[in-house]
Structure formats: structure tokens, C-alpha cells
């Protein structure tokens, strides 16, 4: 029974089960027909804007950096022992996050 835990054999078994499940789903799905509603974009029931918006990436990068600092900081604090240096690191982490928030 442990032979199915060997990675190549487990992959082949997983691939076969996925193919069977996909084929079963195709049988249950039924026929599809092309219509204008299927090819149009969904805008949650609202009219599409006639002008294209050009959002910047500044807010995205600020948020991404915020969460990267937060998660990596907590990971570093969680993997350290409770030494006084961890408190200094935590204060630096808080200051970095405040600097990001205030912009």
C-alpha cells in the first residue's frame, strides 16, 4: 500500500483521477450555446464606463509593501526567542508600518 506514496506513482494516480472527474463533469454539463450574454463582460449589472480609467500602481505597491513587512516581521518575531532585541525589532517594525501608513 505504500507504493502509492512514491511521487511518480502518486502523480499518475492523481492524473487518472482528475481525468475521470473531468470527464464525468463534461457528461453532466450538457450542451452549450453561444450567445451575446456569454461573451460580454460582467459589470455587476451596471453600465460599462465609456472612458477608460488609468489607475496607478502606487497604492498597490504601498499595500504590498505593508503586508510584506507585516508578514515577514511577524514571521521573524515568531521564530525568535523572547530576547530584548526582539522588542527593538518590534519597535522598528511598528515604525516602518507607521511610515508606510502616513506615506
SSE topology sketch:
Elements lengths: L6 H23 L6 H4 L18 H21 L5 H19 L1
Helix pairs in contact: 3-4
Describe the protein in words.
By secondary structure, the protein is an all-alpha fold. The protein has a domain at 56-103. Helix content is 65%, strand content 0%. The chain contains 4 helices and no strands. It has helices at residues 7-29, 36-39, 58-78, 84-102. Helix 3 packs antiparallel against helix 4 (84-102). It starts with 6 loop residues before the first helix and ends with a helix. The model has no long low-confidence stretch (mean pLDDT 83).
- Strand percentage: under 5%
What is the end-to-end distance?
58 Å
- What is Rg? 26 Å
Q: Given the C-alpha coordinates, what overall shape results?
A: flat
Estimated structural class: mainly alpha
Question: In this structure, how is the largest beta sheet organized?
Answer: none
Ranges where pLDDT stays below 50 over 5 or more residues in a row are none
Averaged pLDDT: 83
Instruction: Count every beta strand, where a strand is a DSSP E run of 2 or more residues.
Output: 0
- Report the order of strands and helices: HHHH
Number of helices: 4
Features:
mainly alpha, 0% strand, 103 residues, single chain
Quick description:
The chain has helices spanning 7-29, 36-39, 58-78, 84-102. It is an all-alpha fold. It is flat and about 65 Å long.
Amino acid at each position: 500500500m505504500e507504493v502509492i506514496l512514491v511521487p511518480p506513482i502518486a502523480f499518475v494516480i492523481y492524473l487518472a483521477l482528475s481525468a475521470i472527474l473531468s470527464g464525468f463533469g463534461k457528461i453532466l454539463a450538457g450542451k452549450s450555446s453561444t450567445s451575446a450574454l456569454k461573451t460580454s463582460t460582467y459589470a455587476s449589472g451596471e453600465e460599462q464606463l465609456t472612458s477608460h480609467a488609468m489607475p496607478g500602481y502606487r497604492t498597490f505597491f504601498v499595500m504590498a509593501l505593508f503586508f510584506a513587512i507585516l508578514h515577514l516581521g511577524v514571521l521573524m518575531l515568531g521564530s525568535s526567542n523572547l530576547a530584548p532585541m526582539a522588542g527593538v525589532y518590534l519597535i522598528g517594525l511598528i515604525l516602518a508600518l507607521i511610515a508606510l501608513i502616513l506615506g
